[in-house]
Each structure stands twice: as C-alpha cells, then as structure tokens.
Amino acid sequence: MSSWFWWIIIGIAAGWIAGLVMKGSGYGLLGDLIIGAIGGWIGGYVFGLLKIPSSGIWGALITAVIGAILLIAVVRAIRGGRR
C-alpha cells in the first residue's frame, strides 16, 4: 500500500511541475496524476536507453517530470497548439 501512495504523490507532483514548466499551471489533480504517471514511464524508458541511473524518491520525481515534459511537448506538436 505504501508504494501506491508514493506512486500517486510522485505522479501528481511530476504532472504539476511539468504543467508549470510547459504552460504556467497544472492540469488539475487527475490530469496531473495521469500526466505524471505516463511521464514516469516515458522518463524511465528514456533514462534506460541513455543509461542514466535514477533511484529513490527524488530520482523518480526527476525522471517523471522529464518524461511528463516530453509527453506534453509531443502532444502539443501533434495537436498543433498549447493544450
């Protein structure tokens, strides 16, 4: 149960931070969680390809934020705008 709690907290924080970096505000609690969770997967994949280690809560947060920023950038490129 504890790991789910941290997964949710890190996902929300990562989505919120990525939202701030990419547009100036978050996407709401559920949106931030979804963006952060998908971003964590994307960041983990990219970090794995680049052989960049990340461990612990701070490493997971940084990985998820970078992945979420990449996700937002790709979605905007496909949709052709901001949000």
Plain-language structure description:
The chain has helices at 2-23, 29-49, 56-79. With 83 residues, it is mostly helical. It has one domain (10-72). α1 (2-23) crosses α2 (29-49), α1 crosses α3 (56-79) and α2 (29-49) packs across α3. The chain is globular and about 35 Å long.
Please, how many helices?
3
Proportion in helices: over 70%
* SS elements, strand count: 0
Query: How many structural domains in the coordinates?
Result: 1
Terminal residue distance: 33 Å
Largest sheet: none
Question: Could you tell me the mean pLDDT?
Answer: 85
List the secondary-structure elements in sequence, H or E. Answer: HHH
Shape descriptor:
globular
Class of secondary structure makeup:
mainly alpha
Compute the CA-based radius of gyration: 12 Å
* Uncertain ranges: none
Strand content: under 5%
Keywords: Cell membrane, Membrane, Transmembrane, Transmembrane helix
GO cellular component, one term: plasma membrane
Protein name: GlsB/YeaQ/YmgE family stress response membrane protein
Family: Belongs to the UPF0410 family.
